Amino acid sequence: MFGKQMPSAARSKDEGEKPFWISFADLMTAMMILFLVVMVAALSSVTQRINQAEQGEKQRNKDISQICEHLSLKAKTASKTIVVDCKDNRISFGDAGRFGHNQYALSNDGQSALQEVVPMILDAANSEEGRKWFKQVVIEGSTDTDGSYLYNLHLSLQRSEWVMCSLLDSRSPLQVGLSPEHQQQIRSMFLAGGVSFNNAKDTKEESRRVELRMQFFGLKEKEDNLKPDVPVFNNTDMEKCQLAMNR
Fold it and tell me: What is the pTM of this model?
């Protein structure tokens, strides 16, 4: 009787001392499940960021369209001369925005168009959507193809500079109605840049023109809260253009 029970007790003792080893197949299955969980979480996070970026870009485009369309409506109401192109975010002035041959000063009609449109642009920049997205306005002076490249480059820069002078020179009639706050905003928002004949029109007369190109912050710039550096000038004298304003 005792002899029959001893092998069973010895067998139980041997089985209890055997180490437990997970099978290789079970180990690989567990690792695969863990990998899938991590991948699903990562893909979900990436998808969420993409959706947020797409929604943000849609909202940005909607806000910019609203800014431009509102500005276009005000311009049409105020003057038939001012044309706001919301596709390219450009403002042109038709015949009033053209220059004479080898001239950098706008006509009286061109100055009047500037005097009308600049306050509208500032109002658009100060709107709720404008404070979020409006970055700057580039004054683009253009030329025809008469003369050399450097000659036309210099002339295009003079034309854009003259427009800037018209906005800031203390002797300019455009100063009427511009508050000191508006003048400071012009200094920080408006940039003068020549484009020579790179954007020529069908005729030479149409090519000799000035346009205002509105630029807006990108979504990444807005998220990073990036703002263009605005220089601060210590000179307290009245602004005076270096070009001849009566030309």
Answer: 0.76
